[in-house]
Amino acid sequence: MATIIDEAADQIANAIGAGTPEQQIVGAIVLGGGIILTSSIGLVGTLILAPLAFLFAAIGFLRLFPAVEERWPLS
Q1: Total of domains in the chain
Q2: What is the DSSP string of 46-64?
Q3: DSSP H or E stretch at residue 23
Q4: What does pTM read for this prediction?
């Protein structure tokens, strides 16, 4: 059984492009939700880190197109 730490590590790896484009999008959404939910980093930290998760999701979306995936294969 996977622990929450293992699952978080898997989602972070997926968010930066270790998996398929679909896994990257889901990983980025989970990462963004985690950033927003852990408001211990404060508003400024959230405003800085949340666009990073959006960037990872946008890259995953672009990788759904075969031409982009052929030129930039992350997995």
Answers
A1: 1
A2: HHHHHHHHHHHHHHHHHHT
A3: helix 21-37
A4: 0.71
